[in-house]
Amino acid sequence: MAKKKIESRQSTIHGNGVFATQDIEKGERIVRYKGKLRTHTEVDEEYGDVDEDGHTFLFTLNDDYVVDGNSGGNVGRWINHSCRTNCEAVIEEHDKGNRRKDKVFIEATRRIKAGEELTYNYGITLEEPHNAKNKKLWACRCGAPKCTGTMLQPKR
Length: 156
Hints:
Order of helices and strands: EEEEHEEEEEEH
Strand order of the largest sheet: 3-9-8
Radius of gyration: 16 Å
């Protein structure tokens, strides 16, 4: 059996993080983001009354479903956001159009050396204004030279 190329441990960015235990090549599929598949309505019912704290394991899969890493999640849920990424989230749509069978994978966007923390842009979008409260709630802690200070994506 092949040795795993990643492991979870404490991060200087935030809480737990995921780190390369071996070099990972650009374009390599690293891990599938796993968790319970839920509808957006189910997620709203489960978490809608919970005060937002800027910490989430919910990954929007498509217009119908969300992957809830809080339930049945794997190491992929610990990959932190950064403004200077080395990975990206890639949605693989089911070839027969079954939205329930779409999947999320994390892939390397450049060569990652053993010991490096894996990061990607969470791409968080809000319908409400990006006011000071929301920017603080969704603050970025990556420390990159060109850090935007927030995980929120610019309004279009």
